[in-house]
Every structure is written in structure tokens, then in C-alpha cells.
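Notes, p. 3: input format for complexes.
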Amino acid sequence: MKKNPFFIKEIPVDAPFCDREKELADLISYAKANSNVVLYSPRRYGKTCLTKRVQHSLKTIGTLTAYCDLFGVTSVEEIARRIAKSIYTVTHKSQGMFNKAISFITSFRPVLSPSPDGGISVSVQTAFKTDGLRVLEDTMDSLERFIHDVGVPVHIAFDEFQEIAEVNDSIAIEGILRHYIQKIQCSFFFIGSRRRVLLEIFNDRARPFFQSALNYELKTLPEKDLILFIKSQFEKAGKLITRENASKICKLVSNHPYYAQKFCFFLYEETSKKVTSDDIVETNAILIKSERVVFESILQGLATKQIAMLSALAKEPTAKIYSASYMAQHGLGSTGGIQQSIKTLSKQDLIEKDNKTGVWSLVDPVFRTWLDSS
Ligand SMILES: Nc1ncnc2c1ncn2[C@@H]1O[C@H](COP(=O)(O)OP(=O)(O)OP(=O)(O)O)[C@@H](O)[C@H]1O
Ligand SMILES: [Mg+2]
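Output follows (374 residues plus magnesium ion):
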């Protein structure tokens, strides 16, 4: 039996990919030109896997590519630590570069240990105790000197970059990072899904990063490419799906890259030889059920009135949130309360307003279906 050609875990860098040719070419050319880019989209549109593909391609032409994930950082020391770790991780296989990194980055020492998968895992230890902003400054200063000395082009991706805005002293942190990023001769990508928080860092005049990078938005997948992708993946793995059924999937997941992959993964398992309409209905229920824990944990983090607002927009997207009839029909309470809820839910990127129509709706299509049906 052939292997399921779809992925629910992270997609490998050499696995078939749907579309994104233009995005890949754009991002590679920005990186080669040493430009800085803010890459943003709602959750799971493929920012991280696209960045990994950009870096994979840059590596083949001799670029040193570091990937620094800032998810969950809670202190300035931790930010500095993750930066140092990303440099040690990318250099440890080349003795010459690794020695250079060690000689420049004096604030953290690398620790190499065998990992369970038979490879080497890299961690870092603080080399000396000092105040957090100083450690970040030292690390960025050593990064600048390392990049200057290393003699090859460098690309650094900061994933979940918006997290720095939630850390104490965030403006001072932004100030230090901006100071060095402006001077360092390489390309930086700043990636994130909490669009409001991320874009405010770059588009607010009062913030250090103001207008320091190109804004690049990743959209959903074009429907016609997604249909072809689904059909060809099924066919290559020995099963069949019609254009109409592939199109139904695109509609059900609103052309969302992650949900399309996940839907098709389950559907491939469900189908014996040829996908039927019933398989699609059943798979849709499986997909929604598989996300339940994630959705419930989002709701657990919200206040009752925010949940009411979210449910109202799932059931009935609207441009008239403050109309008396909408408020009464969905039991939304006071205007002040609604304002607060809208602010919190937008900041978390759970809802968004369409700029053209003014309609507010949920960002995540499967979350919307789940809320609407529960
Ligand atoms: N162009 C594509 N073709 C096929 N599958 C894709 C594509 N883009 C994304 N995916 C699927 O979506 C998954 C999620 O992608 P990824 O983790 O890169 O999203 P993200 O935008 O970084 O999400 P988050 O905001 O949660 O960090 C991938 O592992 C892959 O299965
Ligand atoms: Mg990501």
C-alpha cells in the first residue's frame, strides 16, 4: 500500500508544496539583497515552512542561515540565549565557523550533547552573570562582529517575533535589536501570526523598528492551484478524487493551507480507492473533532463576554456590531464591553475586519464552523 502523501506534522522541506512560487522567489530575492522583511499571516498559513524553504535554497548558494524561534520568550536574557543558540546550531557542523562563533559570542557557551534521534543537540549556557539588557547588547554586538568576519552571506529568521512585545522592557529590547539590525550586513526576516502586535512594532512611528522592513503578507492558497495539488497528490499515491470533490474541500477549509493538508490526510485514510461525497462529509467531522482541544483551550483563555462576541461573529459576521438588533440578538451587553472584546480578540488575531466591506468575522474557518455548530 502506498504512503499517505499528506502531512499533519510539520511538512518536510523536500515534500511537495502547493503554489507559493512567487512568494518563494520574492523572499529569496529580498534575502539576497540583504533586505529585512516582516512576513505575516494568520496562523498556519505556512510562514514557517516557507521560510525553511527560503533558507534551504539560500544554503545551496553558500548563505549561512540561522533560524531563531522566539515562541514563548519571557525575558530579555531568554531572547539573547535563543539568538546565541541559533548561531551555534547553524555553525556547529563546520569546525572553522563554530570556532569563530565561540570566539565572538562570549556571553553564552555552547553545549553539544547526543540527541535521541542519533544527531547532536545544541544548547547554551550563560557565560557570566550581568543584567539582561546588557546580555542582549553583548550578544547582538558579538553577532555583528561574527557576521562581519564570517565572510559568507547571512540570513537570520526570527519566528514569532511579536513575542518580544510582551516581555518586560520591550521598548528597550526593540531599541537594542533595531540598533544592531540596522548595522549588521545581512537579511533578517521577522515572522509572526499575531498580525496586530507584529505590525505595530514596525508601523508605529513611536517604536524603534518603525519602517525598518518590508511588509510581506502571506495569503490563503489560490483555489485552482490547491485543487490541482490535492488531485495530483491523491493520484500519485494511488487514489482518485474528482475536481468537484477537491473543490468542495477547498470551500470547506476556505483554501487554508494547514487545514487543507490535514483534511486530505484524514480523507486519504478514509478512502478505499475513489473519494466519495460521503467520505468528504465524514472527514469534515473528523477534522473539526481533531481541533476541538485547541479550540476549547482558546475559549478557556477568554472572558464570557469575549466568547459571546466570538460566537456571535461565528454565527453571523457583521459590519454592524453596535446595532441594537445585533447586540440584542446575540446578548452582547454594553457598547463599552463590546469595544473591549473586539480589542482583545483582534489582538489575539481571532477576529478581523475586512477593510473593504467593514465586516467583522472569525479568522480561522474551522474554528468558525465549530463555534457555529456547538
Ligand atoms: N504551500 C503549501 N503546500 C502544502 N502544504 C502547506 C503549504 N503551506 C503550509 N502547508 C501546511 O501547513 C502546515 C503549517 O504551516 P506552518 O507551520 O509553516 O504555518 P505558520 O504560518 O508558520 O503557522 P503558525 O502561525 O501557527 O506558526 C505545514 O506543516 C503544511 O502541512
Ligand atoms: Mg510558524
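The chain has a mean pLDDT of 95.
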